[in-house]
Design goal:
- The chain is mainly beta.
- It has a single domain, classed as Deoxyuridine 5'-Triphosphate Nucleotidohydrolase, Chain A.
- Helices cover about 5% and strands about 40% of the residues.
- The chain is built from one helix and twelve strands.
- A four-stranded antiparallel β-sheet has the order 3-6-10-8. The protein has a four-stranded antiparallel β-sheet with strand order 4-12-7-9, with no helix packed on it.
- β1 and β2 form a beta hairpin.
- The longest helix is centred in the middle third of the chain and has 7 residues.
- The chain is globular, with a radius of gyration of 20 Å.
């Protein structure tokens, strides 16, 4: 399953992805690999402010049982342009064999052009912990209790 500390993943280029670089980490300490847009060579998709686009990556993968892949935003695109992954993180299940695609949304003020080979997101592979629910009449007490959204972040100003 592993080779050099990583998990072995089947990878197949689709016709429109051939010629792109393999997804790769940009530094030795990076958790994810960058995903590139597999658009036609002379094509460009422009995502208008407030709009979204489904972008192809041009490949399919075969994750081993017990793993998932998460599609996450690239922080630089979010910080500089307001562009992020809409369903973040997007989950790729181990039994999916279709093309990897990314849903980008433009929360910025300017149109955002995407061209072939542009790095648009990152993919992180992680083990899956499968829940086994057990019914209980009551749950144990905690300091937080039933406090919901924002319940731990209140500060008094004085």
């Amino acid at each position: 399953m592993t080779d050099g500390g990583g998990v072995s993943i089947g990878f197949r280029w689709l016709a429109h992805g051939e010629g792109l670089e393999l997804p790769a980490r940009q530094t030795a300490g990076a958790a994810g690999v960058d995903l590139a847009a597999a658009l036609p060579l002379d094509d460009e998709i422009t995502i208008a402010p407030g709009e979204r686009a489904l972008l192809p990556c041009g490949f399919a993968i075969a994750l081993p049982q017990g793993y998932e892949a998460q599609i996450r935003p690239r922080s630089g695109l979010a910080a500089k342009f307001g562009v992020t992954v809409l369903n973040s993180p997007g989950t790729i299940d181990c039994d999916y064999r279709g093309e990897i695609k990314v849903v980008l949304i433009n929360h910025g003020h300017d149109p955002f052009p995407v061209r072939r080979g542009d790095r648009i997101a990152q993919l992180v592979v992680a083990p899956v912990s499968l829940p086994q629910f057990r019914l209980e009449a009551e749950l144990d007490e905690t300091e937080r209790g039933i406090g919901g959204y924002g319940s731990t972040g209140h500060r008094t100003r004085g």
